[in-house]
Amino acid sequence: MKRILIVGAGEVGYHLAERLSAEGHQVVIIETNTQKIKRLEKLNILAVKGSGASAKTLEEAGIREADLFIAVTNSDEINLISCLLAREYGVPRKIARVKSEEYLSPESPLNEEKLGLDLIVNPVRALAEEIVRLSRFSQLSDWEEFGGGQILLIGYQVRPKTALAGVKISDLMELRKLYAFLIVAIVRKGKTIIPRGDTILRPQDRVFLILKKKDLKAIEHLLGIKLAPPKKVFVIGGGKVGKLVAEQLEKEVEEVVVVETDLERCELLSESLSRALVLNVDGLEAQELIKEGLDRADLVISVTNSDTVNILSALLAKHYGAQRVIIRVDHPDFIPLLNPLGIDKTLSSRLVTSDQILRFVKSSRIFSVTSFLETMVEVEEIEVPPKRTFEEGVKIRELDLPEDTIVGALYRNGEVLIPSGETVIKSGDLLVIIGLRKGLSKVEKIFEL
Amino acid sequence: MRIRPLIAEKCVLEEIKVSDKWQVLKDLSLFLAEETGLKPEKIEAALVEREKMGSTAMGEGVALPHARLPLLSRIYIGAARILKGIDFEAPDGQPVKIIFTVLAPERETSAYLRCLSNLARMLREKAFREAILSARDKKEILEVIVHFDREF
């Protein structure tokens, strides 16, 4: 258990507090706004009213005992000052959210290192990076790598009349000698299920598959999917996120079209982009966009500053035939509505930011952690500790893991295995465990993290 | 659905004489071509492409080569034996003696997957493998398949 001090109870702070306290850490939040403090009550988290830039408030919140300091208010200045204060109080690890680009480059007079921070998270960049990462594989909703890139966890939406529609999990298990992959989670109508042998996959299920990267081609064959990168991508909204995304994608994708309503911004985009086509059109002018081939797009990325425009432009694009859409939505309450409407992937800069922070915070035995934003699925890499029971080896079946968790992969001496209940695990093995938060906390206890 | 109606009878072979696994795929393609009306080179190319992604040998002396093919009207299954056994780069290193081949239309949906999984389930049974190997002729091989065939 760690003592964690969070400054700012906005979306990011709230989400972090919820997750970190669910994992058993002692969390204290500093917040100026009484209403936001009220919202914390149901999480059972101690809140201190005041500013993170005030030493008195920090002391009241117990800064002297804190192991970790996270500053995520809406103000860069407050975040940076409070982190500087935390440094003076000797807090070992400090993380700040900083929106301004000025502190990000190694050449800038004040950067991560000079400020003594362990991590600066820039929400715009974090979001753009995540979008670019997810853009690379046209038919997938998710793509995560583990075990130094040897293991993949991919998200895939089952469509009617495709290979997985109507298939029983136990049928897939019969194929494990030919296709060593596991379906580790299913998101069905907004609910996350950890499947069992008798679970039957249905159209519209979003399934999470874990597999060895080297088997990817064979599995593409079996499922009849092609993971080729997209050829034609529309980026709707040429703001900061859109610009970063377009800059990266034009290096990798044949055709990139950026759609922006503001004429001046278009001129700036044309100058800084080398290959992408910049259109001065509203993202909702479907007919104009179809002239440029919106209907034939492999991927449409909607990242304007307006949730409504992003949602509607994505729905229009899908309606006219675009293969896949990724959108930015800042209002968290909208997120669960969107997948059932046919929006393949929804990202919010706040959630991407808190995810980046969570990955950083996890204790040393957990090497990597990922959560899939609109779902409750989380993934952890856990090293089996050098305890006597594990030194001798234990069958996964005998570990008595909670029902809502599953061991998706195991690596030992550089070898990767997609395990079954009969697989024996030993100290030093690295496990990739997928599950729901409650279950994962129990797993952490089994391994005494 | 069951396995038996999908069996291409011209492709049930008591014994094929071949030197390596690529030769097996070539030979089987000739028989499958006769039944399906597709060009043998097309079938072979598809089976080879899949085999190169990873061996279709499953251990216990069994292999299950399979591929999707455009222009195919339905799923076709072939069965063949190599009684002396042949190296198929199996995960357990054992020589392969029983080979079931599955060809499916390009757009075949879950039937392909369920068909493969059902064959894999049958082949996992020792009794099935032994019965296939001790069958005296093609007729008996088909009888064994019918005996172990289950609705899927």
TrEMBL record, chain B:
PTS EIIA type-2 domain sequence ranges: 5-148
CDD domains for this protein: PTS_IIA_fru
SUPFAM superfamilies, sorted: Phoshotransferase/anion transport protein (SSF55804)
Cross-referenced Pfam families: PTS_EIIA_2
GO function term, MF aspect, one: protein kinase activator activity
Coiled coil, from the record: none
Highest taxon of source: Bacteria
InterPro entries xrefs: PTrfase/Anion_transptr, PTS_EIIA_type-2_dom, PTS_SugarTrans_NitroReg
The protein, known as: PTS IIA-like nitrogen-regulatory protein PtsN
Organism in which the protein naturally occurs: Thermosulfurimonas dismutans
